[in-house]
Amino acid sequence: MRVLLLGLLIAAPSFAETIEVLRDNFGTPHIFAHTAAGAAYATGYSQAEDRKDALLRNLRGAGSDDTVLSPQLQKAISAFCAGVNRYLTEHSENNPVTPAMVVAFSRRAFMTVHGANDVLIGPARSSTGNVIAILDPLSGWNDDGRPYEMRWYASDEQIALSGVAPPGVPFPLIGHSTSIAVGWSGSAETAGPRALEQAWAMITARSSAEVQAALRMGQIPGRALVGTAQGEIFDSSGGIAQDGILLRQRNVPQSEAMTVQLLAAQNKWPFGRAVDMAFSTAVYKAETWQARLVKVAPELPFVQMLTGWSRRSDATSTEALAFYLFKMALGKPEASALEPPDSLSNNRIRAALRKAQDQVETELPYHADYGTMFRVARDGASRSTPAGGGTVTEAGMITPRAITFEHRGAVVMGTGGQTATQIVELSRTPNSVSIAVSILVPGESDRSDSVHFDDQARDLFSKGIAKSTYFGDRKELEKHLSAKKDLIF
Prior knowledge:
- By secondary structure, the protein is an alpha+beta fold.
- It has 15 helices and 20 strands.
- It has 2 domains: 18-280 and 416-488, Glutamine Phosphoribosylpyrophosphate, subunit 1, domain 1, CATH 3.60.20; 286-399, no CATH class.
- 33% of the residues lie in helices and 21% in strands.
């Protein structure tokens, strides 16, 4: 009898954990586990399923670092590797990844963030009195380090996280819980060997005091903006909130001034307006050009079109394309000026207007709009999508919706910029978030045969629409599932 009982215990170990991976309509994995290790295991499996090649290049190219981290984190990293290796084994790949690779890659993980357009709106400026965080890291859309989005629940340890990290990191680095929202600027410097330990302490913190203790570890280079459910906002570099708002903007001339101007336009910010601002296509200082054109040639129909323009470079805007062509027709250096230089003569403006009008009438398709020329497509995509907004430096056009472009023949193709935007309103009610939305450009998967290869670029980003994260709302999530998988750890 004893032998039989012992055999049953061995066959069905009590420590086995079942983890549910629910994927929403855009393929984002929502991982429901009992422990942090279980959640990390499913994260490893999911990242390998969606981004295997990038994941392996990140980990195998990082070398090895045998730094011993905290027991909880070591367990999670080992579980993450076990999840990756299970997927590799299922697909006949027998070269496993190791925890030392993960630790080594973690020192380079923050280098994959190419700046950020983060904004924290404090209680005095939000319409509900809660902190609203716009977490907006920038990266290349074809990079191996392009953020991977995940929702992460470990019920026994009361951990609930939402956010992104480059493939090869087992939990969100940029994102939020019900207590904290954390954004990082990225850095060209290599992080310290205990960077993952600091990142884990920050994203799982429950108060600003715990975040400050994590920051004192000093392992992660760059700047962090942090908001709390208690209503605090602060900057790890010591920056002071102005009028109840903290922001960090990308290295584009006048980008910060543009955002400050937009924020000043409204005293109290509801969540929906914050979302609109994050994806705004409003062209900074375009009104100064309209004012100059009225003085030069108000009688011209082409000028009347430009001065009647909404000053938004929406994908469907014919006026935005006409403005771009007019600015380019001015030639250097005036074309790239945000405002009309005093030295710019009326004759040059008239000549540029004639040239731009001729291009619209004779060189472009009938009713061509901004999205006819400005497109979004990742490498390997079968088609491109009309783009709205972006930074067009040569034409002096800057918008909050950040896209970097490169010329490819007759089109101007977006190759990076806003990649993993998250907007969240933290609730003062314990263990809850008022609302959260996100977008991941181009899509969750790197597999060209996946419907999630570029679906968010195509269906959301070009329209300035974010998707619900369903954070903390499993009942609503289950109405919007594309796949479900159970894993045993």
